[in-house]
Design goal:
- The complex is a heterodimer of chains A (233) and B (359).
- Chain A is mostly helical and 233 residues long.
- Chain A has nine helices and no strands.
- Chain B is of the alpha/beta class.
- Helix content of chain B is 34%, strand content 25%.
- Chain B has helices spanning 15-31, 91-98, 141-152, 157-167, 183-195, 213-229, 241-247, 265-270, 287-295, 320-329, 344-356; strands at 51-62, 65-76, 80-84, 106-111, 126-129, 201-205, 233-237, 250-255, 258-264, 275-281, 300-306, 309-314, 334-340.
- In chain B, the strands form three sheets. In chain B, strands 5-6-7-3-8-9 form a six-stranded mixed β-sheet, with helices on both faces. In chain B, strands 11-12-10-13 form a four-stranded antiparallel β-sheet, covered by helices on one side. A three-stranded antiparallel β-sheet of chain B has the order 2-1-4, sandwiched between helices.
- In chain B, strand 1 and strand 2 form a beta hairpin.
- In chain B, helix 3 (141-152) packs across helix 4.
- The longest helix of chain B is centred in the N-terminal third of the chain and has 17 residues, at 15-31.
- Classes of the chains: A mainly alpha (233), B alpha/beta (359).
- At the A-B interface, helix 1, helix 4 and helix 9 of A face strand 5 and helix 3 of B.
Chain lengths: 233, 359
């Protein structure tokens, strides 16, 4: 197995054994979709593209938030307890360590987000009586746009958590989450195509996600071991 | 002070190689480790491959405060080296610089002749144990070791993990979560993790910190066992002077950002410009008179009656036979004479006090 796979696999195993993170993730993955479904059902009627668009709109913020939750274990906890210092002494480059952790965060965050999307669709179906069609654009959204945004969020938040001190991290966590959410809402509002899901919206969101992922890589490349070690509490 | 050399444990049975190795140690430890050099500068050997750890003129400041000032020392292969100093002296900073986690402000550091900051592959030859052990509480003991075995590319990891868990007496807890372990058990597993990939040099930062006396002894025995069995160089950063005195061959005392002493433990504890000698007399009633007699001798700097014995301080460390002869000549019957060397703690405190006094 590659080094990246070893690191990612370990992060996933540790995340799955962290009950508090799993419970908070699952609560968010179920509570938010049910609340959203009530709003979607009330406003959308039985318009299939509107239902799909609403579900698509909800999954991105959920995915980003899931990334944030799982980052707390993979990046922040290891920094707080100093384990990261030992990992930095292994023959693994800092970039590989960051990538492995980001993948290890993104995978469970993505799976939880898919669960959240399924719960939303089921709740909307239950409330409206109209089944949500497996529309190709919605599937593309879930298969491409969502994982790219989750990876970007995990990478950016992880890099920030490695580089910043504990106090700054508390503030920055919220700043990044709200930044991502406002960016998603802003893009959905700015891109023409109405309230439903559209190819244009998905293309713009996918491009923005890729740009954010690239930005995360650039920022992670600027983080040094010295910076990480000097901000360990 | 310099004189006797520590050859370190043999790494080979080949007589030629052993001879070569002995020559190298003699060269490294005797030729260049001269304590008489002013300004605490200890030249390091020209041949970079000789030393396991080399530090030359290392300085480092944080936020305008100088933590390390012109620190130089070398550690030979196979040595158990003790790096001593009070809190905040810069011991951990030195280790972090050696491991490439922090950049040196000035000077140069090498581990096995390599710069670990820029050489990812060289880090395969080095192990490290920081205070937190580097373990995940939510993984099993074997799972934690397997993770690091993967990162270091250990051959046949299952066999090595079994071997180490047996060595640190945790074989029966191999599948238990580390979060359920005691501090001592975590420490032992941390040491196993640090040597998992058979490093040539292992850095142990306060390995006995927070442990009860029994666990401290266990860790100490483990370090000695590893040094002998795994034939590795041990760089030990510790506050436990008794522990250092028992297991280290060489020590450096860091205080006020500078190296204050650097020598073998034997040399440091034996060396002194004065020597204390305790003399027990067969007839305790003679003690006061014998003390007066001793004080009249030119090579005796001082003499006190301390309980049942005379405590004499010799101005000339080689004058013990003369003292005995003079007392016997004066008619005193001597039952026992003992030379008392200083403990590492006394030497350490002397240097630290000197540094804190503005030296």
């Amino acid at each position: 197995m590659s080094t990246l796979g070893i690191i990612a696999g370990r992060e996933m195993r540790v995340a799955l054994r962290n009950r508090s993170i799993l419970i908070s993730g699952l609560i968010f993955a179920i509570w938010l979709p049910v609340m959203s479904a009530m709003g979607i059902a009330a406003g959308a009627g039985e318009e299939v593209t509107t239902l799909a668009g609403s579900i698509a709109a909800v999954t991105l913020p959920v995915g980003v938030f899931m990334g944030y939750i799982f980052c707390a274990d993979a990046f922040l906890r290891e920094k707080r307890d100093g384990t990261i210092e030992t990992l930095l002494c292994t023959p693994v480059s800092l970039r590989c360590l960051w990538e492995g952790k980001a993948v290890g965060v993104a995978v469970p965050a993505y799976l939880t987000t898919l669960l959240s999307a399924a719960v939303t669709a089921a709740a909307v179906t239950g409330l409206t009586g109209a089944p949500v069609a497996a529309e190709p654009l919605l599937l593309a959204h879930l298969a491409v746009v969502v994982p790219v945004w989750i990876a970007a969020a995990a990478g950016l938040i992880g890099a920030a958590q490695l580089a910043l001190g504990m106090r700054e991290n508390q503030i920055l966590g919220f700043v990044l989450i709200f930044g991502f959410v406002f960016l998603i809402i802003g893009l959905q509002q700015v891109v023409p195509g109405g309230p439903g899901i559209s190819a244009t919206t998905e293309a713009v969101l996918a491009a923005a996600g890729v740009a954010l992922l690239a930005l995360a890589r650039v920022i992670a490349g600027k983080v040094t071991k010295e910076r990480i070690v000097r901000t360990i509490p | 002070m310099a004189g006797s050399c520590y050859p370190g444990p043999p790494v080979t049975q080949d007589p030629l190689l052993l001879q070569f190795r002995a020559e190298i140690y003699h060269y490294a430890l005797c030729r260049f480790r001269s304590p008489g050099i002013p300004d605490n500068r200890y030249p390091v050997p020209e041949a970079a491959g000789v030393s396991a750890v080399e530090v030359r003129g290392l300085s480092r400041s944080f936020d305008g405060r100088e933590i390390l000032r012109d620190v130089s020392f070398t550690v030979g292969h196979g040595e158990v080296f003790g790096y001593l100093g009070p809190n905040g002296a810069g011991k951990t900073t030195t280790i972090r610089i050696l491991l490439g986690l922090l950049a040196p402000g000035a000077g140069e550091v090498r581990v096995l002749g390599r710069d670990l900051a820029s050489d990812d592959d060289a880090r395969r030859r080095v192990g490290v144990l920081f205070e937190n052990n580097g373990l995940a509480d939510r993984m099993s003991a074997a799972g934690n070791l397997a993770y690091y075995a993967g990162l270091y590319g250990v051959d046949d990891p299952a066999e090595r993990i079994d071997e180490l868990l047996t060595l640190v007496d945790l074989a029966d807890r191999r599948d238990d979560l580390v979060g359920t372990f005691s501090t001592g058990m975590k420490r032992k597993l941390g040491i196993a993790r640090a040597i998992l990939h058979r490093p040539e040099v292992v850095f142990l930062d306060e390995p006995s910190s927070g442990l009860d006396p029994g666990a401290q002894r266990m860790v100490r025995d483990l370090i000695l066992e590893l040094s002998r069995r795994e034939e590795m160089t041990v760089f030990l950063n510790s506050h436990h002077l008794d522990e250092v005195q028992r297991i280290c061959s060489t020590v450096a005392i860091l205080a006020g950002g500078r190296i204050r002493a650097f020598d073998t433990v034997a040399n440091l504890t034996a060396a002194s410009d004065r020597l204390a000698v305790t003399v027990s007399l067969a007839d305790p009633g003679d003690r006061a008179h014998a003390c007066e007699t001793a004080m009249g001798l030119p090579f005796v700097a001082g003499c006190d009656v301390d309980g049942d014995v005379l405590l004499c301080t010799l101005a000339d460390p080689g004058a013990t036979p003369d003292l005995v002869a003079a007392l016997v000549g004066a008619g005193f019957r001597i039952e026992e004479v003992r030379r008392s060397s200083r403990s590492l703690e006394e030497i350490y405190l002397e240097h630290v006090d000197l540094a804190e006094g503005g030296a």
